[in-house]
Specification:
It comes from Oreochromis niloticus. The chain is mostly helical and 103 residues long. It has five helices and two strands. The chain is globular.
Length: 103
């Protein structure tokens, strides 16, 4: 059994979710420069591959621009991990509210 498999067996569900957020961000960041941030193109790839149609059509340039500008709070022309996590938290909260209201 691999080391990562053993670690994943002893991690709680929340710890696994945190590790997944980190690894997903790392999978897309740094392809175009800084490995600690997402460029607009990297964010587009992440949104398209990880969220599908949940947020917007990934080929809708205006929607991608809006999401990128909303996330890039410090106007660094990139999205850092904290900005990415805020997006995931907001989406998670919206999904929770949707499913609670449907009960």
């Amino acid at each position: 059994m691999s080391h990562s498999r053993i670690i994943s067996l002893i991690m709680s569900d929340i710890q696994k979710a945190m590790a997944l957020l980190i690894s997903t961000f790392d999978k897309y960041s740094g392809k175009e420069g800084d490995k600690n941030t997402l460029s607009k193109e990297e964010l587009k790839d992440l949104l398209q591959n990880e969220f599908g149609e949940m947020l917007c059509k990934a080929n809708d340039k205006a929607a991608i621009d809006r999401i990128f500008n909303d996330l890039d709070r410090d106007k660094s022309n990139s999205v850092d991990f904290g900005e990415f996590v805020r997006m995931v938290c907001c989406l998670t909260e919206m999904c929770h509210e949707y499913f609670v209201s449907r009960k």
